[in-house]
Write a structure and sequence with these properties.
Helices cover 20% and strands 33% of the residues. By secondary structure, the protein is α+β, with helices and mostly antiparallel strands. It has three domains: 207 residues, Rossmann fold (3-Layer(aba) Sandwich), CATH 3.40.50.300; 82 residues, Translation factors (Elongation Factor Tu (Ef-tu), domain 3), CATH 2.40.30.10; 107 residues, Beta Barrel (Elongation Factor Tu (Ef-tu), domain 3). The strands form four sheets. Strands 2-3-1-4-5-6 form a six-stranded mixed β-sheet, with helices on both faces. It has a six-stranded antiparallel barrel with strand order 7-8-12-10-9-13. A six-stranded antiparallel barrel has the order 14-19-17-16-20-21. Strand 16 and strand 17 form a beta hairpin.
Length: 423
């Protein structure tokens, strides 16, 4: 394993903003993808009438090839900067991107928000910026992509930059002026790894220089073990392998653990990351774990593997602070949308609006509220309609943040402030 510190990163932004091309180009520039593969994909892209899509195909092609070989890190790719070892989470290119984006963002330590110079801010740009904020991702880089499509024009860049900064201020991001906003052409590699000679007017960092200013997360090794499960495989010769990212605690082969919901007691046999067996896993590690004592059919994505003496909490209800982002009408008691948290999603009902909060101060407003509308922040009580693991955000941040989806869009997002365990 690399000796560099590890950071998980997610690329987000509106569909067609250039996420996949950016990721493909980075993997190519850092030597993760050979020249001949790009040449082959270029031919294929032209044949399919998708000229300039060769870098975007890198991720999709790899995903296909990896799925055939069933490796442990299906939706992850890694690369190194001078300072850090990065894992790209839940690569773009999914039809149902937002759902995966929520799963991905809940595991990320930092994010790159990709905005097209040609199109500027789009609906998903707004949605993703709001989600990153609510999911607690404070380390952000903005990449203004497709500068080649606007002839590397400084005025266009300045306008889009101003729009994005205003958007981030609206969502109460701190120190917006200090967030790097980088003009780039991912297709031609301008300002990703190497400085571009086509934008001499820009004196800021390249994407790689900006990534090296990120701070790796603190590793809560002193807390009980928690690993939300992202995938489950039955691998010949090994048995059941669960895949996920360790959020807290330390995992070692030979230890007993519990998978909830279900209370399955398992033994950890072997731990792998990026095809290498490791003697222990710590928070931040994306791993595959060979477990004994459970069948593949019993465990699903969204279950959580945890400490045998302090099992993951299956909840009867939970209290949360939510922000309503984008609901066409209003949210009231009895509303039953789909909640997305860590790697799980589940239907749940709002059973009480406990208090409405002043968004600026966070203090309760002295009025009884029947409904919540866009822009409202409130404390609500929620009851899941099926067994699910949720934890307080103050104990396990990644297991205590969620987004609420309805009608194919994110309508609200929030954090868990208290839980009532199921009996």
């Amino acid at each position: 394993m690399p000796k560099k510190e590890h950071i998980n990163i997610v690329f987000v932004g509106h569909v067609d903003a250039g996420k996949s091309t950016t990721v493909g180009r980075i993997l190519y520039e850092t030597g993760r993808v050979p020249e001949q593969m790009i040449a082959k994909l270029k031919e294929e892209a032209q044949r399919l009438g998708k000229a300039t899509f060769e870098f975007a195909y890198v991720m999709d092609r790899m995903k296909e090839e990896r799925e055939r070989g069933v490796t442990i890190d299906i939706s992850h790719q890694d690369f190194e900067t001078n300072k850090y070892f990065f894992t790209i989470i839940d690569a773009p290119g999914h039809k149902d991107f937002v759902k995966n984006m929520i799963t991905g963002a809940s595991q990320a330590d930092g994010a790159v928000l990709v905005v097209s110079a040609k199109d500027g801010i789009q609906p998903q740009t707004i949605e993703h910026a709001a989600l990153l904020k609510v999911l607690g991702i404070s380390q952000l880089i903005v990449l203004i992509s497709k500068m080649d499509a606007v002839n590397y024009d400084k005025a266009t860049y300045e306008k889009v930059k101003g729009d994005v900064q205003n958007l981030l201020k609206k969502f109460a991001y701190k120190n917006v002026e200090q967030i790097p906003v980088i003009p780039a052409s991912s297709y031609f590699g301008d300002n990703l790894v190497k400085k571009s000679d086509k934008m001499s007017w820009y004196s800021g960092p390249t994407l790689f220089e900006a990534l090296d200013t990120f701070t790796p997360p603190k590793k809560p090794t002193d807390r009980p073990l928690r690993m939300p499960i992202q995938d489950v495989y039955n691998i010949q010769g090994f048995g059941v392998v669960v895949v996920g990212k360790v959020e807290s605690g330390i995992m070692k082969p030979g230890m007993k653990a519990v998978i909830n919901p279900g209370g399955y007691v398992v033994e950890v046999k072997k731990i792998e990351t990026h095809h290498q067996e490791i003697p222990e896993a710590v928070p931040g590690d994306n791993i595959g774990v060979n477990v004994k004592g459970v069948e593949k059919t019993q465990v699903k994505r969204g279950f959580v593997l945890g400490d045998a003496n302090n099992p993951p909490a299956v909840v009867k209800s939970f209290k949360a602070q939510i922000a309503v982002l984008n609901h066409p009408s209003a949210i009231g008691v009895g509303y039953t949308p789909v909640f997305h948290a860590h790697t799980t999603h589940f239907p749940a009902k709002i059973v009480e609006i406990v208090a409405k909060l002043d968004p600026k101060t966070g203090q309760p407003v002295n009025e009884k509220v029947e409904f919540l509308k866009n822009g409202d922040v409130a404390i609500v009580k929620i009851e899941p309609l099926k067994p699910v693991v949720i934890e307080k955000a103050s104990d396990y941040p990644a297991l205590g943040r969620f987004a609420i989806r309805d009608m194919n869009q994110t309508v609200a997002a929030g954090i868990v402030i208290d839980i009532e365990r199921a009996q």
